[in-house]
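Anyone up for a design puzzle?
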């Protein structure tokens, strides 16, 4: 597989301040958020395209249980649409431990990550982060 360069172009929060209690009716905060968005809009590493995530643990073994998975999105103004933790399932496929908006709790998704992303039309792939 190959990775795809990620170019961050965030502006969602400043464009839709009414969606955020912290920003709603507070133009000074919106101005500050807009400046932060602009500051961090730039090339920012690479991501793994969703089509490559149907591979085995031997091929994607650099992804470890507990790594943070950020779902890269095609939604305008956003870089990531969801976060979770990598979990290699008993089926040998990559899954995600995450806060499910459907189930209203944290779950280890029974659906492999590849299939999960295929159901998300805006999901481009994942970025993997490790802090230990």
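Challenge accepted. My sequence:
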């Amino acid at each position: 597989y190959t990775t795809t360069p990620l170019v961050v172009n965030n502006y969602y929060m400043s464009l839709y301040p009414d969606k955020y209690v912290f920003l709603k009716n507070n133009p000074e905060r919106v101005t500050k958020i807009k400046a932060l968005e602009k500051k961090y809009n730039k090339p920012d590493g690479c991501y793994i395209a969703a089509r490559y995530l149907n591979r085995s643990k031997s091929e994607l073994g650099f992804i470890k249980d507990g790594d943070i998975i950020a779902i890269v999105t095609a939604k305008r103004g956003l870089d990531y649409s969801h976060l979770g933790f990598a979990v290699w399932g008993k089926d040998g496929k990559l899954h995600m431990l995450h806060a499910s908006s459907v189930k209203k709790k944290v779950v280890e998704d029974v659906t492999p990550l590849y299939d999960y992303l295929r159901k998300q039309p805006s999901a481009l792939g994942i970025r993997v982060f490790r802090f230990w």
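A detail worth pointing out: The chain has three helices and seven strands.
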